[in-house]
Structure formats: C-alpha cells, structure tokens
Design goal:
This protein is of the alpha/beta class.
Length: 504
C-alpha cells in the first residue's frame, strides 16, 4: 500500500489528517508500506517503523538503524533528522494500531471479534468460547496469555495482549487461514497502552474484578476504568456480550450497558439471565443445571473442568456465543467435550492415589478460589506450592501466605519469576502471611521450584492433592534479566517418570 493512500484512508476513517514530515509524496515519489512493526531487530523491507517509548527503550533511538535495514516510513512523536518520510503523531501507540489496521486491510472488521476482560478466568473463558464457536463450524483464532493461534499455527504467547501491529498481522493471518472469528484476552495493560487500537469487537465479556496490577493502576477504580474502556471505546455498533452478575464491578457495567449485556451468575439473588445451579463437582469435572431465556426447564450440563469458577467461565462463554448459535441447546451440550486448558486447574491423577493441580492462580482471589474448590473435592490433605512474582504488587504476598495457611494443610513457599528482586525477600514476605494465620500448618521454604514440587509429591499420601500455583503453563523462570527454561508440567511429568508412577 502506498503512503498517500494510507494517509487518505486514515483521514477518512478518523476525521483527522496526519502530519507528514519529509513527505516525499509532494515530490511525486510516493513510498510503499507493506509491513508495520516496532522492533528494530526485526525490520522488513518497506516497513512503517513505529518509534514507541517502552519501559526501558525509546524507539526513536533506533529509527536510523530501521531505515538502514529497509524501513520506508517512520511513525514518530517528533521529527527526526532523517530524510525518510515521517508521520508525526501525538500518540504513537494509538496510531500504530490504527495504521496497522489500514495497511493490513482492516481484518477486525471482517472477522467476528470476541473480547474477554476481567481479573480472573480470562484464559479459560477464551478457550471455551473458541471451543463453542468451532463446535458450530466457525474456525476461530485465539490471542491470549497461553498461546497465539492463527487458525493453523499455534505458538506460546509472549504476553497476554501483543503490540497492536502484531495483533493486526495475526488477524490478517487468521483470515487467510480460513478463520471466521477471533477470541482475544484484553488485559488492562493492553487497554491502557492502546494495544487493541485498530480492533473493534462484536462481543465482549467481563468476568470479575479483584486486586491485581495495583502496582501499575494504583487503585481498584483506576483498574476498573482501564478494563471499562473495552466497552466504551472498542465495540462495533451492534455489539453484545455478558457480565458476571455476582461481581460488584460487573454489575456496574450491566447498569451502563443494559441494552447490550446479559448477566450470568450462580447466586440467584441477582437474577442472572444465564443461571447455573445445583453444582456437583469432582476433580473430573462439574455437573450443573443451566437456566436460560426461552427454555422452560433447566438444562443439565456436564463440564469436564472442576470448580465453581469454571462454571462462571462457561456461563461467560455462553453469554458471548449463544447469539451466534441456531441450535442453542446443541451449543450448550458441546461443553461436555471441552478439553483441559493448560495451566488452568490442569489435573494430573496418579496411580499412587495422589493428584496434582497446576494452576496459574497468582492473586489472593484466584488462590482462594482454587484452594476452596480443591478442599471441596479432596478427601485427603492439600499441599500448596507457590511463590510470587518480583516487581509485582507486594501486599499480595502476605495475603497469599495467609490464604494458603487457612485453606491448605501444608505450605511450601518457592520461587516464581523473582525478576530483579531477591527471591529470599519475596519468600520471607509470603512466610509472614503464613505465620499470621490462626491455623498452624507445616511450612517449608524451598526456593528451587523443581525441588519444591518434588518435595510436595514425595510427601503426598493417597487421597492428597498437591496444588502448584502461580505459573500455570509458563515455560520459563525470569531471574534478573534472564529467562531460564522451566515448566511446572514438565517437572511433574519428570518426577513421575523418575518415581515410576503412572498418570493420566
């Protein structure tokens, strides 16, 4: 696409002309733009290189290198002493997404776009939405915390919400691969940094809100405000979706968008449109009754995912997908074939009689949910193995320790992405929370995460459940500036092989 057409399309779409510096167009030498990027190490020929400011680096410093490597145009916040055509923007991050959308043919306008936001349950909800859509014949791409899937190829996710230029390219690939829809986790950081600019959504879901990322947002109100931008700024005209009627913040959204959002829930006093009741759960899954509009009798459902919170996730997914199903009961029935989500209440059952749950729970709210559900399903002891990430909201460490001591029978404090904080210091803050509990439980600190998992599994008896939380499907430990290969799942499977224990 030539630069003049991009400029023209931007002005028409956003009713705002772009300012050009060194505009070769005036001299009759229009330039071609084929790609959009912001990583100077991955420059492609005829790329629009976006000079974004990061936490540690400023893209303007790498603009010269980008031009030498083939960038035809720059997106800058201030003119640079380079002869290359430059688009000058007051908000480079915003315009990176908008321009990427134009260059790649506005793929979000063609795809059916589904967004999931909230604190807990986003990943599982996106996986269930994809499963439900594919059950009715809609090939669906996925962008989330666990993986990026373009309809054919799947790779591990680098972050929950990628940079906007990468999102637009992946959406284009989804279209090229025959996808009719995309489901995307939309994090508060992604919304705050404008990473979903260029996207507009047909459906959106709000799962819940609890204390998380307050090191960045400061207050719950700011956190909620960031999440709310999904609904106020990025929805298509005739959008619809759902919000958790049992969550106080979600009910605020239900009040604001009563003509767009349906409520889902389990607590009857809030009168949810989609109501789950009569929950019966085991480690193998959950049976419940589903009441939904237009159906006279509750529908029996089996969800092969354990726990009350997974019922919430299933209801959230249904709130977004039911409008697209011609046979609503068949869509509901397809929940029974849902696969386990990696690192989300991911269960391993061993022939020794011991079970293990691997879960991403890294907030007090999430850990409380996981341990509460396991307690209901466990006939023996619960051994809780977890840590807390460095450079994250520190008050959560005390809370995590207190919750684990209250709900588990043994606690092993370990390492979880310490980054640039001393792992020993993080562990000590968690231990304070454990020791504050009125309930005294065996406590060990084993910073080597593999050794901690081995210790828990070796000490477990038939009927016990080991809960390893915090990292879920992650395949690394971030220590200082290094990412060291590590996986809870790999560690658990290696333990089983070494001990000669079979699992399923």
């Amino acid at each position: 696409m030539i630069l003049s057409k991009i400029i023209e399309e931007y002005a028409a779409r956003y009713s705002s002309p772009l300012r050009l510096h060194n505009q070769a167009i005036d001299g009759g030498t229009d330039v071609s733009v084929v790609h959009v990027g912001c990583n100077s190490l991955e420059i492609k020929k005829d790329e629009l290189f976006c000079c974004i400011r990061g936490e540690h680096n400023d893209g303007h410093s790498f603009a010269g290198d980008a031009v030498q490597k083939g960038a035809s145009t720059l997106l800058v916040e201030r003119p640079l002493p380079l002869e290359t055509p430059q688009i000058v923007s007051s908000n480079v991050r915003r315009d990176m997404g908008r321009l990427s959308s134009i260059v790649y043919g506005d793929p979000a306008n063609t795809l059916k776009m589904f967004a999931v936001t909230g604190t807990n349950g986003k990943s599982t909800t996106t996986w269930i939405i994809r499963h439900l859509l594919q059950s009715i014949g809609i090939r669906t791409g996925l962008l989330g915390t666990i993986v990026y899937n373009d309809g054919i190829e799947e790779k591990d996710a680098a972050r929950t919400t990628p940079e906007s230029c990468d999102i637009q390219l992946m959406l284009l690939r989804m279209l090229q691969n025959g996808c009719g829809a995309c489901v995307m986790e939309t994090s508060s950081h992604g919304l705050s940094f404008g990473r979903i600019e260029g996207c507009s959504f047909d459906a959106a879901v709000f799962t819940n809100l609890s204390e998380e990322h307050l090191d960045y947002h400061g207050t719950l109100e700011n956190y909620f405000s960031a999440k709310s931008r999904l609904f106020s700024d990025y929805m298509k005209q005739n959008w619809a979706g759902g919000a958790n009627g049992d969550d106080a913040f979600a009910r605020r959204l239900l009040g604001l968008y009563s003509d767009k959002l349906v409520s889902f829930g389990i607590e009857k006093e809030y009168g949810a449109h989609l109501l789950g009741s009569n929950l019966q759960s085991s480690l193998e899954g959950t049976r419940f009754s589903l009441s939904l509009p237009g159906v006279s009798e509750p529908v029996p459902v089996f969800l092969p995912l354990p726990g009350k919170f997974n019922v919430y996730n299933a209801l959230a997914a249904l709130s977004a997908t039911l409008p697209y199903a011609t046979d609503k009961l068949a869509l509901v029935d397809s929940l029974h074939s849902m696969i386990q989500v990696p690192g989300r209440m991911e269960r391993y059952s061993f022939n020794s009689g011991v079970s293990c749950i691997i879960d991403f729970a890294h907030t007090p709210f999430a850990l409380q949910n996981v341990l509460t559900e396991v307690r209901r399903l466990c006939g023996g002891r619960i051994i809780s193995v977890f840590g807390h990430g460095g450079e994250r909201f520190q008050p959560n460490r005390f809370s995590l320790g207190n919750i684990a001591a209250t709900l588990a029978d043994e606690v092993i404090v370990t390492m979880d992405n310490p980054r640039n904080e001393p792992a020993e210091q993080i562990a000590a803050q968690i231990v304070e929370g454990v020791e504050s509990s009125e309930r005294r439980v065996p406590l060990k600190t084993i910073l080597d995460r593999s050794a901690a998992v081995y210790e828990a599994m070796d000490s477990a008896k038939p009927g016990d459940v080991v809960v390893v939380s915090g990292k879920g499907p992650e395949k690394y430990l971030r220590i200082g500036s290094e990412s060291i290969p590590y996986s809870d799942g790999d560690t658990l499977r290696r333990w089983a092989d070494e001990r000669g224990v079979e699992w399923r």
